């Protein structure tokens, strides 16, 4: 209340009258007796306005007072904030069950048991085998097995999809639906070799000394087992 009255005093030449008028406007119960109000004003107005001709009208006094009531800033701010929250709601947590790409879904429908890592890779058996469906955009058609893995491709000249393994020992490619699909291969480990088999018949090898085979011919689509010797 004090800051309202202070504003009145700064902006009104008739400070006592304006203060009295402002206080009555804010707290009219102080002057419940309407008949007594004019006498109160007359008692408090400055002496130089004693003459009736010099006394301004009530409307003129109100205009001169120019009371400035502070805007309810907190209320306005709260209203704006609520509006923003309605129009722009906070994003919810990412959906853990996000819909997979159609390409991933199609591959899993014919090669079940995997888990999508992203829109281009599928993990099988807890990451033992990683399948990459398509070559990254802008890369050349070349042997591109990541370091620490050996890879086999569904098409000659390293054509995707690509599967990759790293474990030692004999493994059945049927575990991950890769039997009878290998047409090229790349070995990218520091040591060892891997042999591709048709059951117990050894078809071809790749390893640290012979890393690539761009075409598995004459054994395209024959391998159904691999056997990596780590040393």
From TrEMBL:
Pfam hit, one: Inhibitor_I36
Source taxon at top rank: Bacteria
TM annotation in the entry: 73-92
Keyword list, A-Z: Membrane, Transmembrane, Transmembrane helix
Annotated protein name in UniProt: Peptidase inhibitor family I36 protein
Species annotation: Micromonospora arida
